[in-house]
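I am still getting used to backbone structure tokens and would like to learn alongside you. Would you supply a protein for us yourself, any chain you care to pick? Start from the sequence, derive the backbone structure tokens from it, and show both lines together. Go ahead whenever you are ready, and we will take it from there.
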Amino acid sequence: MLIEFSVQNYRSFNQKVTLSMVAGSIKEHPEHVFEVCGLKLLKSGVLYGANASGKSNLIKAMAFMKRFILFSQTKTSSTDIIAVTPFLLDAKTRTEPSFFELSLLISGSIYRYGFEINRKEIVHEWLYEKKCAPYSREKLIFKRNLQAVEPQQGIDLSKLRNNALLLSFLDQYNDKHAKQFFAALGNIRIITDTGKLFQKTLQMISNGSMPQQWVQQLLIAADVGIDDFIVIEKEIDWNELNDLINIEINVKNNPGAWKAYTSQVLHKYYNSEKDTIDVETFDLQDAESMGTKLMFGFAEPLYRILTGGGVLIIDEMDKSLHYFLTKVIIELFQKSRSNPHNAQLYFTTHDVAYLEKMSFRRDEIWFAEKNTKNASNLYSLAEFKVRNDASYGKDYLRAKYGAVPYTDFDKFAKLLTDGDE
């Protein structure tokens, strides 16, 4: 379970910012909160902001940290450059390390793990654990300063590379703390490109990891007009690859062939008396709308996270989805009936329709905004004094909370009217 995530000197983030899923003392929507290990955590959160305010960069920072933890030891060599991008609009930060820190609740303990890195090496790295027991204190598991590690980990660290994380290195030796942290990372799903979800859902159905009937019932509940569908696995020649867009493909034993999936959907058709005559078959990817395909794609992460627990983080979740469908996805996480494992959802959006008291607590609503030096900041609506009868959406559009673009119609019109008589 996600407690906090912090980042500094990465992309548009200059100073340290922290996203917290710890609930405040407000009493709004108590069902959106669950208590564990002495903490009250939120089940959902939403991030608003203007274009280029830093919303996507926050999600990218989370994705980078997860990817680097999982693969810094196994997918890189000693000569590889670390693909981290510092804040480049400050002469000082360009040469300073980037900071990442993540606090997770794992198996009865709170783990706080982080690192500072530049493009050449790991500068600092640390891991702390606090047991979920009365009067327990945070205990140091390890800390690293360049290649110096304390306390000793009981294994030979001479092969620890300066561009690989110690946590990733320890995982190769079945260290219990590393194993627990890696397992928890596996339950955090970060989606920065919703276009890839379609093939993932088809793949999960094909290999039996997700019931096809569950997806079918989801589409019926979404009222997209699909009564049933079939999944077809197909072989693709190398010459066809250029025609594929956003398809996740798996190499098969045959080096000249790849595996991909397609789906045919079944729609009923009727006579003039509105009696069902038969069904018509369409290719889902070619014939259906972007919203229908996106809802189909969301089946995989929704099934996986809501039925097994975990964290779902999505950049622009509501792109191409109707307001009612997005709202029901949010409610699936917020209500205990549909979320018995206290899974968490965090997403970015521009749609102020969700910015209302009926949808979110104030501590679930976040904003990203750039300052005059083009550096992103992050803050919560809970930091503002808000009247009980306030309209969050209207006040946001009035720029009461910031995080909106300042547009001037005359400046846009001037582009088209300059020179006119």
